[in-house]
Structure formats: C-alpha cells, structure tokens
C-alpha cells in the first residue's frame, strides 16, 4: 500500500476574539507557530560503570502560540500594549491651557491641530513669531514674547483620531483559530482551533524602523474544561483528506 504524502506549505488567516465573544480577522501577520514545551524527569543508572538512564518520564509542560502582527490597527496596538482603544470624533476646543517655555515644545491633547488662537491673559499671540504649530502641538521659539512659565490658552480644531491608552488593562483570554490552506496539497484546508489563549504584551513596539512595522505576540494555551471527555482541552487540528 502506497503511503500518502502530506508535505506542507501553509497560508491563511488568524481569527481571534475574547472567549465567548465575536471572532474576527486580525489582519496581516506572519510566522504563526504552536510550540509544545516538554518537561522530563530521569532516573540515572548508578549501578553500572557506563551509566545511562533507568527510567525516563516526560509530559507536556505547556503549549505556546506565537505570531507577528503587521496590521497596526488601534485594536491590535491595544492588544499588544495591554491597553484600551477608543475612537475620538473630530472636534474643537477654545480653552486648553498649558505652561510654556521658550525654545520648547507643548504637546496638545489632540493630534494635527488647526490652531485658531493662543492667548496669554486674554492677549492674542502671533502665529509664526510667538508660536509654531506642528502635528503634535506647539513650538515656542526662543524669540517668542511668551515668557518662561506663563500659562497659555489654546483654541484649535482637530481631526478624528484613534487613541490607545497603554497598560490600562489586564491579560485577557482569547479564542484563536487558524483558517489555513496547504499550498503543497492543492490548497487543502487546515483548521487549527485553540480554545483558550492568554496573550502576553508584545515584546516590542517599534516606533522608528526601516522595515514594515510589526508586533511580536506570544501566548500560553490554557485548559478548557468545557470540552467533552476524551477531547483535547487545548487545541485541535482538522485536515482536509487527500484524494
């Protein structure tokens, strides 16, 4: 009887959501892997000169999943930084206050401001001379008439924006599904269902890079005791049979 070959070249999607909630496509990624970590205990043979092992017992200590996200959406950034994401509609303010110093920058509460006024004690200050607007806020030139330590009141409008408040949430538990296809076997389906995964924050959040931005993610598979007797509590694979 001939042995059926099952070489593998994988492509697919990561679908993910909080356990018991909606599962969605999380976007462009690479290097999805499941790793099984083994723990072994051995009894050495002390009765012979050659030594060796009399008994060896091993079991799977933990299963881990890792992948690298390239879709830097607000939700993925919140996931990577244990944060909370929100959308802020476009708007305007007339009375945001800050202290100013010469030859220094002032971050405003919203990005890409269209500044309509900067005042000190009710007196208007001149754009381009007393202050310069940038995408983060204001720059106060060394020759500005605004004195060090003075309080300024800024009026400006701002565009719609998305905000991630990092390190404001705890690790959450997700369901992860790999919806894959095997290019080496005419695109036959391969589905991997991980029932409960506790994700750690990303190992890095690159801000300046020559390469495409990425979020390296890793998580531990937890036991799902709702699975029926005799079924895995961690993950299962489903492979479309070869013809």
Question: Keyphrases for this structure?
Answer:
single chain, mainly beta, Pnp Oxidase, Chain A, 2 domains, 8-stranded antiparallel β-sheet, 3% helix, elongated
Can you put this structure into words, describing what you see?
This protein is mainly beta and 243 residues long. The protein folds into 2 domains: 10-45 and 52-85 and 165-239, Pnp Oxidase, Chain A (Roll); 90-159, no CATH class. The chain has 1 helix and 17 strands. The chain has one helix at residues 74-80, and strands at 10-18, 24-25, 29-44, 53-69, 84-88, 91-100, 104-107, 114-120, 123-124, 132-133, 137-140, 150-158, 161-165, 173-182, 188-199, 215-221, 235-239. Strands 1, 2, 3, 4, 14, 15, 16 and 17 form an 8-stranded antiparallel β-sheet that branches. A 4-stranded antiparallel β-sheet has the order 6-12-8-9, with no helix packed on it. Strands 7-11-10 form a 3-stranded antiparallel β-sheet, with no helix packed on it. β10 (132-133) and β11 form a beta hairpin. The longest helix is centred in the N-terminal third of the chain and has 7 residues, at 74-80. The two termini are 15 Å apart.
Task: Summarize it.
This protein is mostly beta strands and 243 residues long. Helices cover 3% and strands 52% of the residues.
């Amino acid at each position: 009887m001939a042995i059926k070959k099952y070489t593998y070249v994988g492509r697919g999607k990561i679908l993910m959501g909080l356990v018991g909630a909606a599962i969605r496509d999380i976007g462009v990624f690479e290097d999805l892997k499941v790793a099984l970590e083994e723990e072994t205990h051995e009894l050495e043979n002390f009765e012979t000169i050659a030594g060796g092992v009399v008994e060896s017992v091993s079991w799977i200590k933990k299963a881990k999943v890792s992948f690298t996200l390239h879709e830097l959406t607000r939700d993925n950034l919140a996931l990577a930084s244990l944060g909370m994401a929100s959308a802020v509609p476009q708007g305007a303010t007339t009375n945001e206050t800050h202290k100013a110093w010469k030859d220094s920058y002032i971050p405003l509460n919203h990005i890409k401001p269209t500044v309509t006024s900067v005042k000190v004690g009710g007196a208007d200050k001149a754009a381009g001379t007393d202050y310069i607007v940038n995408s983060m806020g204001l720059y106060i030139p060394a020759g500005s008439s605004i004195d060090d330590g003075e309080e300024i009141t800024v009026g400006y409008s701002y565009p719609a924006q998305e905000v991630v408040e990092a390190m404001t949430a705890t690790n959450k538990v997700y369901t992860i599904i790999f919806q894959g296809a095997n290019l080496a076997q005419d695109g036959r389906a391969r589905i991997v269902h991980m029932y409960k995964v506790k994700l750690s924050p990303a190992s890095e959040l690159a801000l300046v890079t020559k390469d495409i931005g990425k979020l390296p993610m890793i998580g531990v598979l937890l036991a799902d005791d709702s699975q029926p007797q005799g079924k895995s509590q961690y993950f299962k694979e489903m492979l479309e049979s070869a013809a």
